[in-house]
Amino acid sequence: xxxxxxxxxxxxxxxxxxxxxxxxxxxxxxxxxxxxxxxxxxxxxxxxxxxxxxxxxxxxxxxxxxxxxxxxxxxxxxxxxxxxxxxxxxxxxxxxxxxxxxxxxxxxxxxxxxxxxxxxxxxxxxxxxxxxxxxxx
Length: 137
Fold this sequence. Notes:
Elements (H helix, E strand, L loop, with lengths): L5 H5 L2 H6 L7 H22 L4 E4 L4 H6 L13 E5 L3 H16 L7 E5 L4 E5 L8 E5 L1
Parallel strand pairs: 3-5
Antiparallel strand pairs: 1-2, 2-4, 3-4
């Protein structure tokens, strides 16, 4: 893991403020490691600059606290919400990720433009990636 860490993907201001233990179980740690190695590090390398993880792993209590859906891939350590600062730059990041996928350099389960590029959701399911590209308002 070159650019991202497990602890970075588990960090949460909401968890800290509410005293929620967001430590991942071992199976989730493996999924987070895979997410970093297969997607986040290669995307960061191709982007050529810092990428911030706004939300990675969420335990059930944290997921509920932030209003996440019950089937969220964040619960399994398979997803991260990332940003490079502003919507215009996030759109460029999104487009770069699509280019990487089309070139066969990465595969993902879902790539989602959230709230007009307020952030980018990306997920990875080992052996079950759908390569879905979605735009949610």
